[in-house]
Design a protein that fits this description.
This protein is of the alpha/beta class. It has one domain. It has eight helices and seven strands. α4 packs across α5. The longest helix is centred in the N-terminal third of the chain and has 13 residues. About 3% of the residues have low confidence.
């Protein structure tokens, strides 16, 4: 069943990244990963990442079931390869992406990992890796918009990280991110 969530980035008052994730959307998993990502990157560095993306696809409605199953069918060879390597890569989507790039055409790998509901919050690290591997290339991102009840929003303009969990909203300055205990409390642990 999973724990669906959205990872979003706002820059120049625009939504520049919105990745749906089907799995592990808990604040103490997805929120913790994003918090750690933010702690290891300067705001300017993250901002530059999003200078190199290009919005692509059907904004807002890509992740209908029909679209997701269409993606799985179109890129089933990459999906099967990723599934076969999942355990040996410890479920690390950056490593899975790098391995897929050794075997498949880069455009197809990029499309798969930047559209996949499986990539979820890890799409931030995958995007960073793709930009390092292909510094002269614009990376397509696909805006999706599901009401999952769990959102993780990085606002580069306000320099904030917001967690929306069901009816509750928690906003933190990037200079004072929540600790693990707070993330557990948000989740109700």
């Amino acid at each position: 069943m999973g724990t669906p969530h959205m990872t979003k980035v706002i820059k120049n008052n625009k939504l520049v990244f919105s990745q749906y994730g089907q799995w592990d959307g808990h604040a103490n998993v997805a929120g913790s990963f994003i918090k750690d990502f933010l702690l290891t990157h300067e705001v300017d560095e993250i901002s530059k990442m999003f200078d190199k993306v290009t919005l692509s696809g059907d904004a807002g409605d890509f992740f209908t079931k029909q679209s997701w199953f269409g993606l799985q069918h179109e890129l089933s060879d990459i999906e099967e390869y990723k599934d076969a390597l999942y355990s040996s890569c410890n479920g690390d989507y950056v490593e899975l992406c790098k391995e897929a790039l050794k075997k498949f055409e880069p455009d197809r790998v990029i499309e798969y990992f930047m559209k996949s509901r499986d990539t979820g919050y890890e799409a931030l690290a995958v995007l960073e890796t793709l930009e390092r591997l292909y510094p002269d290339r614009k990376i397509p991102v696909f805006i999706s918009d599901y009401d999952t009840g769990r959102e993780y929003i990085i606002n580069l303009d306000d320099k904030t990280f917001t967690i929306i969990y069901l009816e509750n909203k928690y906003t933190y300055p990037l200079s004072a991110l929540p600790d693990e205990k707070t993330l557990d409390e948000i989740e109700g642990y």
